[in-house]
Amino acid sequence: MKKVLVVSAHPDDEVLGAGGTLLKHRNAGDEIYWIIVTSVLESYGFSKEHIDSRNKEINKIAKILNVKEVFQLGYPTMQISPSDLSGLIQQVSKIFGGVQPETIYTLNRSDAHSDHRVISDAVMACTKAFRYPFIKKVLMYECISETEFAPAFPEKVFIPNYWVDISGLMNEKLELMKIYESELGNHPFPRSLRNIESLATFRGASVGVDYAEAYQIVKIIEK
């Protein structure tokens, strides 16, 4: 049994980027932990109905994936800035130390959304081998509507070099995404079921399988 931890800026990131992979971990009996950094808050204009709906969505996803523990950090969505980095590092570090995950799935460092970029920096600060020796694998996932819209500069490009075959789990991944109904739209809206399946088809074709999720390796330590 492995301990794995996925980091989301917003609920739905984890399904878009790593939903099939997390289903594989669940099926293997691994312990899954989930950090959600931001929340929708009434003080920022979100209705109580929307907040209740979002919490129900999170609970449904956690139950289906058999998540052992969900950590909600409560930062206001779309409001994270570099000034939050120090506090984020402290919170993420505490969670990593308590859970001691072997594998981390985290946001791409260059996503168009500023929340994603700051959170990625915080996670990277908490993966130093001499402080977190239990972490053996750190992978960045791609998040539709954010990763592909990053500036097309060499230092910003998401470079997939690790793939997970999710061929038998594609339909279940799409069903997971349907739970986030308010985040979905019709093609050509990026977060459409058609686009999610198309990306998995393309990633799968790159490595000779029906469907895959792609990651960029930050580090892998083999012993």
Features:
38% helix, seven-stranded mixed sheet, 6 helices, alpha/beta, Rossmann fold, 223 residues, globular
Portion in strands:
15-25%
Structural class: alpha/beta
| Major β-sheet profile | 7 strands, mixed
Overall average pLDDT: 94
Q: Can you walk me through this structure?
A:
There is one protein chain. Helix 5 runs antiparallel to helix 6 (193-207). A seven-stranded mixed sheet has the order 3-2-1-4-5-7-6, sandwiched between helices. The chain is globular and about 40 Å long. The chain has one domain (3-220): LmbE-like (Rossmann fold). The protein is an alpha/beta fold and 223 residues long. The chain contains six helices and seven strands. The longest helix has 17 residues, at 48-64.
Q: Brief overview, please?
A:
The protein is α/β, with parallel strands linked by helices and 223 residues long. Helices cover 38% and strands 22% of the residues. It is built from 6 helices and 7 strands.
Helix-strand blueprint:
Layout lengths: L2 E6 L4 H15 L3 E9 L8 H17 L2 E10 L8 H15 L3 E5 L6 H12 L11 E5 L20 E4 L4 H10 L13 H15 L4 E9 L3
Parallel strand pairs: 1-2, 1-4, 2-3, 4-5
Antiparallel strand pairs: 5-7, 6-7
Helix pairs in contact: 1-5, 3-4, 5-6
